[in-house]
Structures are given as structure tokens and as C-alpha cells.
Here is the input.
Amino acid sequence: MTPDSTPRSDLDPWDQALFEALEGGDSLATLEQLAESVDVSLPLLEALVRGGLLIPKATEPDRFDSAETDALAAGLQLVDAGLPLAELMNLARDMDDAMRPIAARAVDVFATFVRDSVEATAESDIDAAARLVEAFRTMLPATSRLVGHHFRGLLLAEARARMTTER
Amino acid sequence: MTHIHASAIESPSDLLSDRPDLVWMSPRTSVFGWGEALRVGAGFGPGRFERAERAFSDWCALAEMQDDGVDAGPVAFSSFTFDDRSAGSVLLVPQYTVVRRDDRWQSISVDGATRESVASHSESVSTADRPRYAGASIPDVQWLESVAAAIDIIEEGGVEKVVLARDYALWSKTPFDPIRLLRRLEARFPDCFVFRVDGLVGASPELLVRRTGREVASQTLAGSAARSEDPIEDERLGKELLGSDKDLREHASAAASVGRVLGEICERLEREAEPSLLQLANVQHLATRFEGRLTHAMSALAVADRLHPTAAVGGTPTGTAIDLIRRLEHMDRGRYAGPVGWMDAEGDGEFAIALRCAELSGARARLFAGAGIVDGSLPEAELEETRIKLLAMQSAFD
Here is the structure.
């Protein structure tokens, strides 16, 4: 399940700025628009939402970041290449389960070593907000690349190992 | 004239090692057959069960029986397609049969056939290769969309329940060995009806009908949940199933259809008041057991004809559900979800619903699984349920 993402009303200014950055992309789409743009049926997208594999914006629960189209297109490529949807969804659920605690730890690490540090050393609220948002915008894509790269390495190593043992 | 010789025999050891062509194994009765003394293509349409039964009884009537004082006669195996428009319904009488009823063993030989003389024509077995995935009749995405369409129709009141199935194919570099598959199914599902009839191999948990004289029994299964290796989690899943409104409604619909039919043909009928939990190796089901006494003499096959298709594999109401299946499933189920079993010349016998099964054809196999769709069903949950059911059968190939 996706945790409640409604921000507290008493956020510090720098955390409020960070929250707005978390919400990110200003190009939002409805589920119907997303279905049309990726040429996929609405029942499939509804199933992905219910499964927590397609996550709406925290502040607008019926809207989706249009960047989701990239992830959806990638999933469809896997299906088109021959991976049964049931297996893909099962893998996605397992990956979701495996990565949630790691994501929580990564956020802890960010909060402890980046946010707290910025808060301690910033010259003003505005400075803290700017530095925090900048750090976030640098770290999010870097983290994504790092995780993607590592998983790719694991996949290739596993595939190589399988090819030496399987008939 | 055909000569049939029945005699009592000592309990034989491991009949599967003699590679029977026809197999039925259940806790109560086992039947093993070699060779073919009679093959009846039951054809199409609503008269197929009756045609098969008539052909068997005509053949028995023309045969000369010698029974050495043993109360036994010829036994026919049969397997019917789910849809009477599909080809493949068949009735077979082996040349040589071994039957176990409770602890009594008997052999039935047609025209002097022995197990050895007929078994010599069995298939050759090559070294097993691993099973390899070979696609499905329809893509999962399309099946999920069919389930969503069925849910829309249910919500509009067009139908109460419909069961949608999907399949997938396996291939191997060497022919699949049906005996190896039977052994694995028997080991994994010892309480199920394990069968091999004309290429259809499986282990079904669902008793469509057992007839012994005028007594009949049936067990409806509908509503399923996964099992867990963790006993606490397993118990939680079972309790959740027993309390699941969606599964209880699905089950009630299936049990009502069996109760209605048996009520029409039984002078006495008893049924469990509440569904119980039937726990199998990979899955747990809601189950309701029926026991009754037939008002008039009817064979096990005739009762199976009246019961099929139950709401557990078709839907409610039956006619509308069958039309929806034809429209939404986009594949021919063949004998999956059809009656499979055996019957003797007196009309006693057992028929299961052919679930958890595969159609074997040399180095290719087609596996099936279905899920009952009712108001409140979620397409992705039904897709996952069928994935788990398919995995159960696939694991017997590994």
C-alpha cells in the first residue's frame, strides 16, 4: 500500500519546498489520457493502480505524472517481447515488496545526512529550501541510475550463470 | 462375439510401472487399463453423453461374460469436452483392466488379452527434457480485458457468475512422459482424482459424481485462496477465505446449481449446511459435499450429463454464462473443465471435473486454469489466481 502522502500543515519552509519538488512534473494526465497516450486498455491501467504499480499524484489522486508513460511503455515492451502479463505483475509485486524497505532506508539516510545537515548550516529558510531542493534534484536521478545500473548488472550475471548450467 | 473374463487378483505392486494407457486413481477406487477394446467418439451436441453410454451398453450386451464368481464386468473410461460444440469427447474400454474397489482387486480381460500382451504396445520413453514455455491461446492482457468486460456485464445484471479460463502451452525436446507426470501428480495431490484418458492427464480435486447403486455423492468447489508454508499465515488465508463475501457468493452459486440438479433426480439429498475448507498442496478451496439417493436408476454418466456444466466451471445462469465464455474466452477449452472418469456396465462409477490438467500430445502440452468471476472480482486478482493454478500443474512437469 502507498502511505498517506498528504503533507502536514506545519511543515518547515524548506520541507514545504522539498515536498513541492517531490510532487515534481507539472504535466499531469488522467488515467484515460494515459491509456490513450500509451495505447493500452483502461482495465489494465486500473489493475496497475490497484496493485500499487502505477501511483497517482499525492495531491491529485486521479492524476498521474505523464512521465509514467515511459514506465508503462517499458512494461508493454516486455509484454510485447513475450513476457506474460501475469508473470510481469508478479515480478513487479515482488520487486515492490523488496524495494520498499530499501526506499525507506534511503529516505532515512537522506533525512539524516542531507536534510538535517542543510538545516543546520543554512543561512536562512530560503537558502535551506534552495539547497534541499537542489540536493534532491541531483540525488533522485543519480539514485535511479545507480539502482538501475546495479539491477542490470545482477540480471546479466544471473543470465550468464544460468547459461552455463541450463540445458 | 467379444469374450470378457473377470477374476479376482492379488494386490498388484506399482501398476504404473506397466505403463497403463488409461488411469484413474482416487482414495476409494483405482482403475488401470491397457489397450483399446472399444473407442467411441461421442460427437457433438446435447446427446453426446447418451450416445457414449448407449454404445458402451450395446457393446456389453453383445459380449459373453465369464466372471469366475467375481462381481465385476467391463469398465469404460470417458472424457468429455466442456462445450458440446467442441470435438474430442471419447469413451474407451481397455482390452485389459485392473480395478481396485476399496481393498478388492479384480482384472477384466477382453478376448484373452493379458497385461503383458497389451502393455508391449505402450509408448517408448525417452530421457526427460525440461518443460519449456510455448505461449498461450490469448495474451494475458487480452484475458484481463475479458475479465473486466465480464465484470461490467455482471454489474449490469446480465449474468450472476461466469468462469473464464486461459491456457498456456509447454514444449520439450523429447515427448512428455505421461506416467512420470501421473506419479508426480499422485505424490503431490494424494487426495485428488488422478487420471489419464486419451492424452488428458491431471489431478482434479472436484468430484462431479460418484454413483454406487442408487447412492450418489458430489462435492462442489468454488472460491479459492493460496496456501502458505507459514502455518500461521496459512490459517489466516483459510479463515479469510471462509469469511470472504466474494468467495462465499461465488461458492453459493456453484453449490446451488449442483443442489438443484441433484434435488431433481434424488428422493433423498443431504448437503453440508456451510462450506468447509478443502486444503490441497498449492491452493485451498471452499467445498460443499452432497450425498443422495437416486429416485430412479441412472448411470453415473447420465448423472454427470445432468450436472455438467456446474456453475463452478461455467457460471450462473448456465446458458448465458456459456454464451459469455464463447464470446470472451477466445479459445477452445477442449476437455478442460469437462467430466472425466470411469463407469462399469452396471452404471456405477466416478466422474471428476477435469481441472488441474494438461492435454498431452508428444512433446507438447496444453495447461489450463480458470477463475470464477462475480460482482466484486478484480481482473488482476483473477489473473494471479489462474497463474498460481497453472504453476501447480506446471510444477508436475519440472
Notes: The longest helix of chain A spans residues 125-165. The two ends of chain A are 40 Å apart (CA to CA). DSSP finds six helices and two strands in chain A.
